[in-house]
């Protein structure tokens, strides 16, 4: 089903992720749920997943993408070489959204402190692409008023990659962690030439609305060959905020109260 081999002290699985029309599915998450074993497919749908000897025994491999139905495979049934794994597109029901408000006022939520000794590092230098799908995020409590999400800002304090790609999501918060995105398409952002400092993603034309708690997450999905370090500043204690961290593309979210990274959410808020 996939090609299986060895590299140094690790085994690896490789294959291709395609849709039902045999078109490559770029940036699909592949890994073992609840573990740090995970990666992301490239633009051609290809991936390589490294894992320690015996780590996948009696485990299932999970594949997911915002636009497709999830699939799972028992690892002990996977065999062969360069098998094409097909994902089924999600059925999307387009609903007309009618928002009636008295008017809007711009509102910025979040944290802007960037000088800190703590940081989240997303890169693993010894095995490129093996921490792709890892992510950081924070919760924003917007209250009951309607909000239209205009911009997402975040700060990169160290980055030596020629190119790195991020997937930004605005999601519902369920059971205390990020859940279903509030948008049907992924928001992708390319960082070029070792970009550091404040990064802004403008989504004002995407019609993303919220009137409750939301989570903004920043997921590392692609890197250039040159580079081994990418990190975000983290500050604690910060009362009343919640920080999220996921190590591995199919891992569970870790929740850290009173901690945050420098992420801001710019909205148009419904006037009273």
What is shown here, in short?
This protein has 272 residues and is mostly beta strands. It is built from no helices and 24 strands.
Plain-language structure description:
The chain is mainly β. It folds into two domains: about 5-85, Sandwich (Immunoglobulin-like), CATH 2.60.40; about 105-270, Sandwich (Jelly Rolls). About 0% of the residues lie in helices and about 50% in strands. The protein has no helices and 24 strands. It has strands at about 5, 10-20, 30, 40, 45-50, 60-65, 70-75, 85, 105-110, 120, 135-140, 145-155, 160, 165-175, 175-180, 185-190, 195-200, 210, 215-225, 230-235, 240-245, 255, 260, 265-270. The radius of gyration is 19 Å and the shape is globular. It starts with a strand and ends with a strand. The model has no long low-confidence stretch (mean pLDDT about 85).
């Amino acid at each position: 089903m996939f090609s299986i081999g060895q590299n140094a002290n690790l085994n690896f699985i490789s294959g291709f992720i395609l849709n039902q029309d045999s078109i490559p599915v770029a940036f699909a998450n592949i890994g073992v749920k609840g573990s740090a074993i995970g990666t992301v497919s490239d633009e051609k749908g290809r991936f390589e997943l490294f894992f320690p000897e015996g780590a996948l025994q009696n485990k299932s491999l999970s594949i997911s993408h915002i636009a497709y139905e999830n699939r799972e495979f028992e690892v002990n049934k996977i065999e062969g070489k360069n098998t094409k794994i097909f994902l089924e597109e999600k059925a999307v029901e387009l609903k007309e959204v009618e928002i009636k408000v008295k008017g809007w006022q711009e509102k910025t939520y979040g944290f802007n402190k960037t000088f800190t000794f703590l940081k989240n590092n997303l890169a693993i230098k010894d095995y490129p692409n093996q921490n792709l799908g890892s992510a950081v995020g924070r919760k924003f409590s917007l209250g009951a008023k309607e909000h239209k999400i205009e911009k997402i800002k975040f700060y990169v304090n160290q980055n030596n990659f020629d190119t790195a790609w991020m997937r930004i999501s605005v999601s519902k918060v369920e059971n205390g962690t990020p859940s279903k995105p509030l948008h049907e398409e992924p928001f992708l952002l390319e960082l070029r030439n070792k970009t550091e400092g404040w990064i802004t993603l403008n989504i004002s034309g995407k019609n993303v609305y919220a009137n409750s708690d939301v989570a903004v997450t920043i997921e590392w999905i692609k890197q250039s060959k040159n580079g081994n370090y990418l990190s975000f500043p983290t500050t604690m204690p910060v009362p009343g905020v919640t920080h999220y961290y996921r190590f591995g593309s199919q891992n569970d979210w870790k929740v850290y109260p009173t901690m945050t990274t420098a992420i801001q959410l710019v909205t148009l808020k419904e006037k009273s």
